[in-house]
Design a protein that fits this description.
Elements (H helix, E strand, L loop, with lengths): L1 H13 L1 H5 L6 H16 L7 H23 L5 H14 L2 H4 L7 H21 L15 H14 L7 H18 L9 H24 L4 H25 L9 H12 L4
């Protein structure tokens, strides 16, 4: 671990890309690496260990990188993170490290919840009260959006039917259109931020529509992702039969093959 931390410090000193990074700029990479680890575990054949070792290393790199940045800010280092984790694990497992005798996993879960409640009280004492939506777990943006809406809905902050969600989505789409660049003109930084906000509002509104008709927005999006990959794969295969690739084909050719691919879907 010390060698790894020293390696990270060297990269921060000598690599132009690493030097530019911030805790915020690294967020997408942490999310991406977690998904890639999950994919490697699901695809594990029980024989080849290289992919899983690589992905676990990539996740660890994110932790090491963030710790290096926070250490540079004089806030804490990897040792502090490990100590905090150890303390939490011991605190949440009194049936292992203390005299608590818990009969089964149900009792363990109940005790875990009790300990977390105590931790939340301590957090409130530090000036960070637990809000109604704080219980929504981290996940992809779509998963969080739908979970937040569901929780808020249980608290009465919701439309009675899907019509209200659709009307709100249409309102957000109109605002997005108004924020789009005209004649492909480059956007200023302020305009880009405004456009990002409007786009986010549209996606959030679309998730709300999915929720109101009992569909999972994440699953629906993944279905679309897989469909897109399959159709584009069809385009590549058909072009290859002609000795061509997407790079040297016209949009009209690829679009025709796209439509053709739909006829072969189950």
């Amino acid at each position: 671990m010390q060698d790894l931390l020293a390696l990270m410090a060297r990269l921060r000193a000598d690599c132009p890309w690493d030097i530019k990074q911030t805790n915020h700029s690294l967020i997408p990479f942490a999310i991406e690496e977690a998904y890639e680890l999950a994919e490697a575990i699901q695809a594990d054949d029980g024989v080849d260990n290289e992919d899983i070792k690589g992905e676990l290393g990539d996740v660890l790199l994110q932790v090491v990188f963030h710790c290096q940045l926070y250490a540079e800010q004089g806030r804490f280092d990897m040792g502090d993170v490990i100590a905090t984790l150890q303390e939490k694990l011991i605190r949440r497992h009194p049936h292992v490290f203390e005299s608590d005798n818990l009969a089964d996993d149900t009792a363990v879960k109940q005790r875990w919840d009790e300990i977390k409640a105590i931790e939340n009280q301590a957090r409130e004492a530090r000036g960070k009260p637990k809000r109604k939506l704080d219980g929504v777990k981290a996940g992809s943006a779509l998963m969080q959006a739908q979970a937040l809406q569901k929780t808020a809905g249980k608290l009465g902050f919701d439309w009675p039917g899907v019509e209200g969600a659709v009307e709100k989505l249409e309102e957000e789409i109109a605002e997005l259109k108004a924020a789009l660049p005209k004649d492909n003109q480059p956007l200023s930084e302020d305009q880009q931020l405004a456009l990002e906000k409007e786009l986010g509002d549209c996606i959030f509104g679309l998730v709300n529509v999915a929720r109101k008709v009992n569909l999972d927005a994440e699953a629906a999006t993944l279905t679309c992702v897989h469909k897109f990959k399959s159709r584009f794969g069809y385009i590549e295969a058909k072009l290859a039969e002609q000795g061509k690739s997407p790079e040297d084909s016209s949009l009209e050719e690829m679009d025709a093959l796209w439509e053709e691919s739909k006829q072969h879907e189950v």
